[in-house]
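S1.2 Input.
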Amino acid sequence: MELVLWLLVLHGVLGGLDVLINHELAERLPHRPGAGLEEALHAAREALFASLFISLAWFEWHGLAAWCIVAIIGAELCVSTWDSVLEDQTRRLPPLERILHIALLINLGAYATLLAPILADWHADPSAVFPVWNGRQTVALTLLGLAAAAWCIRDARSSRRLSALPAQAAAGVASRP
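S1.3 Output.
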């Protein structure tokens, strides 16, 4: 489990860099008319990662509870796929953003592959959620989870504000190459 948790820490760091560098500084998505849906998808993904980081930092999910973790990862895959398609339809991604997305996808495959047998073992046990302490990994994932939760709120508010803008303003910017 130790490697899975470090890969989740890496995921949080790479995701945070993507958000700060690409979404905030380069693209200014929270201020771009037409980016309401993308911001909503980002908020959903951040909520899922906040849940995943904190859930695995502090607990083991045995029996049927293991399906909670599977559901979070499955939902994240759906949201990220939708977001990727939407990004290709609404804006041209800078090379660094594409590179970070590829690194995040590879990392997702790595932590999901390593986590699958752990979840299978947990699933074989009676249903229960057990508290755990993983030292620095618990601290790092908790901080990343809290940051993701805060950013989720920020992006949700941005999505709501951007979605309320007049459609003609959004259409002019969304069709940009």
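S1.4 Remarks. Confidence is low (pLDDT under 50) at residues 170-177.
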